[in-house]
Structures are given as C-alpha cells and as structure tokens.
Specification:
By secondary structure, this protein is mostly helical. The chain folds into two domains: 293 residues, Rhodopsin 7-helix transmembrane proteins (Rhopdopsin 7-helix transmembrane proteins); 34 residues. The chain is 80% helix and 2% strand. It has twelve helices and two strands, in the order αααααααββααααα. The protein has a two-stranded antiparallel ribbon with strand order 1-2. A hairpin with a 2-residue loop joins β1 and β2.
C-alpha cells in the first residue's frame, strides 16, 4: 500500500482476498477461541500449566481477531482508512502485539511439551503452574515493550489523494524502520522458530527411538503413533502459518530500502506479502482446533458448547458427568 508513492501497485486482489479471508478468520477465530476460553475457564476446576498456556494463547488469538474488522473495511475500500490516525496506530500495535504474543506462547508450549517428552523427571519440577504464569506474563510484557515503537512508525498518510494507514511506516521512513524491522524478525520470529524446530525434532526423535527400542502392546503403540502424528501436524501448521509470511516480510524490507526503484520487483514482493497474510492469520483458528481435536474430552466439550442449547435436555447432563470425571482424573 505504501508503494504507490513510487511505483503503481495493483491492489485489486486486496479488495477480494483480504476482506474475505480476514472475515472468515474473524468469525472462526472468535467462535473457536471463545469456545476454548469457555472450556478452559468455565469447566476446568484445577488449573495446570498447560491450561495456563492455552488460556493465554486463546486470549492473544481472540484479541488478534478483534483487530480485524477495521482492516476488513479498509481493504474492501481499496486501502482507504476512514478511522483516523489514533485508531490506525492502535490497530497496528494490537495487531502485531497479539500476533507476536501468540508466536511466543506457542514457543512456550513447545518447550513445555519438550520437557515432558525428553526430560520427564526434570519436567516434574519445571512444568508448574507458577512457572507457567511467570512465563506467560513475561511474554505479554516483552512483546508489548519491543513493539511499542510501532506507535511511532505506524500512522496515516495521503497517497494519490487517499488516506491510508501504513502497515510498517511511510515510504520516506523505511530506512529508519529497517533496523527495527530486522530486529523484530530476529527476536520475534527467527529465535522462537529455532526453539520450536529444536523442541519438535527432539521430541520426534525420542518418540521414534522409544517405538523402535521397546516392545509395546497395541494400545501403547497406538498412543505413541498418535503423539508423533500430533507433533507433526502442529509443527507443520506452525511452519505454514509463520515461515512464508516472515520470509516475504524480510524480502519486502530489503527491496523497499535497497531497490525501491525496481517497480516490477516491488509489485512482486508486495503481492507475496499480502497473499501470505491470510495464512498468518489462520494460525489463530488452528490453535483452538488442535486443542479440541487433541483429546476426546476436549471434543466432547466443543460439542457441548456448539450443541448445548439445541440438545440441552439430553446432552448436557451426560457431558457434565464426563467433564467432571475427566477433570478429577486429570487434575485440570
């Protein structure tokens, strides 16, 4: 959008792709993360470290989707921003803060699972609710602190007689934004991504070695295979949602600073960045889906939330009995 000042950039796809995809993410993310918070906060009697991480992740994803309606309207109007400069800064800040909180909390969940699989004895001391609260609070504080400069860089401007809300900064300010943009990519993406890769590769290696070294009964082997499959799905989802967008964002930064006169290249990287934004946003819908589909109890809770009103008389008493029994056995 900020490329119009130098090169004409085609934005017809933004009027269709981003409003439609953001609308779907908004509806699904609002419903799924609302259901997740309902199950976690309303139907869990004893909070564990896992519940603490998942509730914070649901809050981050929920706040993220709540920033989408102004962006949906703006993109549908061809990047016109009718909401003023203050709301532009607030929306851009909340958008990226909650996105980075979600990514960092997913990293915490990966480390949490890594300790449980690879170091089960050490995990008894480290996977505590108190430590989970400290880690989650630190994520919110660090993400907010490192992203506060967004309030300075993001602002409204006029391009071709149209008021727009710059996603990163205005065209003249990209050289000043460039070091900060690289800092965010390294701290908020590269480091968490390397941690996630290390954790999931280590877990997969440990589970695979255990399956090869031990003679297990059918039930144990089935549970281990399910764990390996779940880890692969979660890791693949993380890669698909975050890696392409951040690669496109990095290339975009370099092109805007070092090759701003190459209009064809500016168009290519700009379109690539916008095309991968929906995949990035879909992560906030994938997190609760993986949570609900990860166990039978969570699937029952989701069914109770979706169908409870329609089948209140028959279903609700059964679900409550199952939930109470599962909660007592699992300790929350």
């Amino acid at each position: 959008m900020d490329d119009f000042a130098i090169c004409p950039v085609s934005t017809y796809y933004q009027r269709i792709l981003l409003p439609v995809s953001y609308s779907l993410v908004f509806l699904l993310g609002l419903a799924l993360n609302g259901a997740l918070l309902w199950c976690v906060c309303g139907r869990t009697r004893r909070w564990s470290s896992t519940v603490t991480y998942m509730s914070n992740l649901a809050v981050a994803d929920l706040l993220y989707v709540l920033t989408l309606p102004p962006l949906i309207i703006s993109n549908a109007m061809g990047d016109l921003w009718p909401f003023g400069n203050i709301l532009c800064k607030i929306v851009r800040l909340l958008f990226i803060v909650n996105l980075h909180c979600s990514m960092m909390l997913l990293t915490c969940v990966s480390v949490h699972r890594f300790l449980g699989v690879c170091f089960p004895i050490v995990a008894v001391r480290l996977r505590t609710k108190k430590l989970a609260l400290v880690a989650s609070g630190s994520v919110w504080i660090l993400a907010t602190a490192e992203l506060l400069p967004t309030l300075v860089f993001a602002h409204t401007g006029v391009i071709n007689n149209r008021t727009v809300c710059f996603e990163m900064t205005n065209p003249a300010g990209f050289k000043g934004y460039f070091p900060y943009g690289l800092f965010l990519i390294i701290v908020a993406f590269v480091i968490p991504f390397l941690v996630v890769i290390t954790c999931y590769c280590s877990m997969l290696a440990v589970l695979y070695c255990r399956a090869a070294d031990h003679v297990s009964n059918a039930r144990t082997a089935r549970m281990r295979n399910k764990s390996i499959y779940t880890l692969l799905v979660v890791f693949l989802m993380f890669v698909v949602c975050f890696v392409p967008y951040h690669i496109a964002r990095t290339v975009y930064l370099f092109v805007r600073v070092y090759l701003p006169e190459d209009c064809h290249l500016v168009n290519v990287v700009m379109i690539s960045l916008k095309v991968w934004e929906p995949a990035l946003s879909f992560n906030c819908c994938a997190n609760p889906l993986l949570y609900f589909l990860g166990s039978g109890r969570h699937r029952q809770q989701l069914r109770a939330w979706v169908w409870g009103r329609r089948r209140r008389k028959r279903v609700q008493p059964i679900v409550c009995l199952v939930d109470v029994g599962s909660t007592n056995r699992s300790g929350g």
